Amino acid sequence: MVKLILQAINHIYLPLIPQQMIPQKDMLPHYTYEDYVHWEGKWELIYGIPYAMSPSPVPKHQRIAASLVAEMGTTLKKCKGSCEVYHPVDYKVSDDTVLQPDILVVCGKIEKVFLDFPPALVVEILSPSTAMKDRHTKFPIYEGHGVKYFIII
Predict the structure, then answer these.
(1) Quick one: what percent of the chain has pLDDT higher than 90?
(2) Fewer CB in a 10 Å sphere around the end CB: N or C, the chain?
């Protein structure tokens, strides 16, 4: 886990700092879902490290998301299955990792205030501020926790 945290920090925030200069895990604050639920604003929590979800998505991002949600919703209604499309929902991967994909397709009933099982499909609409995190940090988490389909736009 330490290696993943260091890779995330290295890829996202510290691309020019040598590996030996990055703080060790015990020097970084480590947050959990219990902390996360008390924060104001929009956040993601990845391996205990908080990531602000701001600024709000630009209009182009919102248009793409709205079009996809409408199209997916229409298609899923025709299937008459138990799958539904959602805008960002807290996907609690573990006690120290909570993700908010742009769009999710969930097959099954969400019983809690968060999704606690892998969605069938995740869509991330990239922006300059999220591209590295979505591609290099979140993708391996989705893949490692059983998300069958991951679309990057």
Answers:
(1) 70
(2) N
